[in-house]
Write a structure and sequence with these properties.
It contains 21 helices and six strands. It is mainly alpha-helical.
Length: about 575
């Protein structure tokens, strides 16, 4: 390790770089990196493409993990039915198999809900690394090999490890989920269904991609010229969404047996195979790992990293920030702790960590219930590019023009709709799916699709409004002296607020759902089911009430945050350091 100084990173980056000025750096390889002036007429077209590609790679594991809950739901249901039928065949006379089997299978399908949502609660833990990345972000920013490049020192090995895990671990995921047997599910598959192993697999991928996110966000600052640096977050948004939709929508569409047989195989001239989708989970993960390996190799050998410590040219209007590699890790973490102790930040943390709990059912469970009640996986997947993505792009633009410089008013307006209108439409949608998913008449289909589209659209609108308001408020309140780390701290709190409720609500849905009691009528021979309880609907009512209580008790505190002056959000660490220097 050697110490060096110099260089200056000036940024309006809303993600993480902890760009700072002065102090000690931690550079593996020694030496001092001279400041580099940006070329006067710098074309960033190739850099835009590279950033989009890198952020796309980041979105791929997220999209793959989003498809796993649907596979878990489907697998658990099939397993429960298979085990019931096999037990009935073993213990019942042949003439009574059908009647008894129908009763037992009905009860097994209902009891599978508890098992499915317990598995979902465990799998939801895999996304935690993105909520905790602030813990190791300063290390990624400060420690690197000078000869290879500040950001490439982390990005290349992290992506290589992720690609190897996806290529060589794809079979492991299929085996843990018991997806290798096709329709031939037996009781022994219970022993092969291990959601903990799949959770660990994706937890590692999320950890690697969270680390890659830190490196790419920082690289965007020096890869792009000063005038284009504000477009880095746009590349982030486009790339992450593209990767997510490629992996999520692409996999569910190509994995669905019906879509593959009716659309993809005729389109590609492939042989008919009605029982299987065009791709399996393992082959899709392996292919995506190969794509990541190719892009990583190209970056490692053909993309030269320049301006490792940033441009030296400084505009007077730019906010100067200090770099973690210059001030050292200890000082970086000390300044973050100083931010956490600010009363305004503590109140904001309380808001960010609590407001997503009342909306957790709509956030995490709604579409799983839709599939459970009969909506196909491909229909669920197609809602993303046709409704969610377009609204996610247009709503922030429109909302910014309406609320202009009042992001927290926008936030609260959206939240009031999110805990009242959105849950009501979600319940109506699920009831329509359960009642009409087997019907073919025009009236039923019209009700079905109207409620599906309306529920999805309203949720997407309020979600986009809140996210846009949240990011706008963060950008206008952070302390310019530590803007990068400050923004990452607030984003980490926001991510954590959306992560911790997931496992809790999944577990509650599983535990509170009571399967019905099914018996065979001695006279008619029909299966009659009675009792039981679907937990989602009463839970949604309770959570909506919690949301209204949150608005009542926390709404004024949220608006109070908007009235605080800029000084309430600043640590004044640099002012204190300057005063101590003068005292000497």
């Amino acid at each position: 390790m050697s110490e060096s100084s110099g260089g200056r990173a000036i940024t309006n980056n809303p993600f993480f770089d902890i760009a700072r000025k002065g102090g000690n750096s931690m550079i593996i390889g020694g030496g001092q990196l001279p400041p580099v002036e940006p070329p006067p007429h710098h074309d960033d077209t190739i850099n835009y493409a590279l950033l989009v590609a890198l952020y796309t790679l980041q979105g791929i594991p997220m999209g793959l993990s989003a498809s796993i809950p649907f596979l878990i739901q489907q697998k658990v249901k099939v397993m429960a039915e298979a085990v019931t039928v096999s037990s009935v065949v073993a213990s019942t006379a042949a003439s009574a198999v059908k009647v008894a089997g129908d009763a037992s299978t009905a009860a097994a399908a209902a009891s599978a809900t508890k098992m499915a949502y317990n598995a979902q609660a465990i799998f939801a833990l895999c996304s935690w690394p993105f909520s905790l990345k602030l813990l190791w972000a300063p290390i990624v920013d400060a420690v690197y090999f000078k000869g290879f490049g500040r950001r490439k020192s982390w990005l290349v090995p992290v992506q290589l490890v992720a690609s190897f895990i996806m290529i060589f671990g794809s079979g492991y995921v299929e085996n843990q989920l018991g997806l290798g047997n096709g329709d031939g599910v037996t009781a022994t598959d219970m022993n092969h269904f291990d959601v903990k192993g799949v959770t660990a697999f994706f937890f590692v991928l999320y950890f690697l991609m969270a680390t890659q996110d830190i490196a790419v966000d920082g690289w965007a600052l020096t890869m792009l010229s000063r005038k284009n640096r504000g477009r880095g977050p746009v590349c982030n948004s486009i790339g992450q969404n593209l990767g997510y939709f490629l992996a999520f929508v692409g996999f569910l569409a190509l994995n669905d047996a019906e879509s593959s047989e009716k659309l993809w195989r005729p389109l590609l001239g492939l042989k008919s195979n009605p029982s299987q989708g065009l791709v399996s989970l393992g082959s899709f993960i392996k292919f995506m790992g190969g794509v990541m390996l190719v892009i990583t190799t190209l970056v490692a050998f053909f993309k030269k990293e320049e301006n490792s410590l940033g441009y030296s040219q400084v505009d007077n209007d730019d906010d100067e920030e200090l770099d973690a590699s210059q001030i050292g890790l200890g000082e970086t973490y000390s300044r973050l702790w100083s931010v956490c102790k600010l009363p305004s930040v503590r109140l904001l943390f309380l808001v960010l960590l609590t407001y997503r709990f009342p909306t957790a059912l709509s956030d995490k469970v709604k579409f799983l219930k839709a599939v459970e009640f009969g909506m196909s996986k491909q229909t669920t997947a197609l809602l993303a590019p046709t409704i969610i993505l377009p609204l996610g792009i247009t709503v922030p633009i429109v909302a910014t023009k309406i609320w202009k410089n009042h992001p927290l008013k926008q936030f609260m307006t959206a939240y009031k709709l999110r805990v009242t209108l959105s849950p009501f439409l979600d319940v109506c949608m699920l009831l329509a799916i359960r009642a009409f998913h087997h019907t073919t008449d025009l009236r039923s289909n019209l009700i079905f699709w109207s409620l599906v589209i309306l529920s999805t659209a309203v949720y997407s609108i309020v979600d986009s409004m809140q996210f846009n308001a949240q990011m706008t408020f963060f950008a206008h309140r952070v302390d310019p002296a530590i803007g990068g780390s400050y923004m990452t701290l607030l984003n980490t709190a926001a991510n954590l607020g959306g992560t911790w409720p997931a496992s809790i609500v999944m577990y509650l849905v599983g535990q509170l759902s009571v399967p019905p009691t099914c018996e065979t009528s001695p006279t008619s021979g029909d299966v009659v089911c009675s009792g039981g309880r679907e937990a989602y609907f009463p839970m949604q009512l309770v959570f909506s009430i919690l949301g209204c209580l949150w608005v009542y008790f926390m709404g004024k505190k949220v608006m109070y945050l908007s009235t605080l002056p800029d000084d309430a959000w600043r640590t004044h660490a640099d002012d204190e350091n300057d005063d101590s220097e003068k005292g000497k």
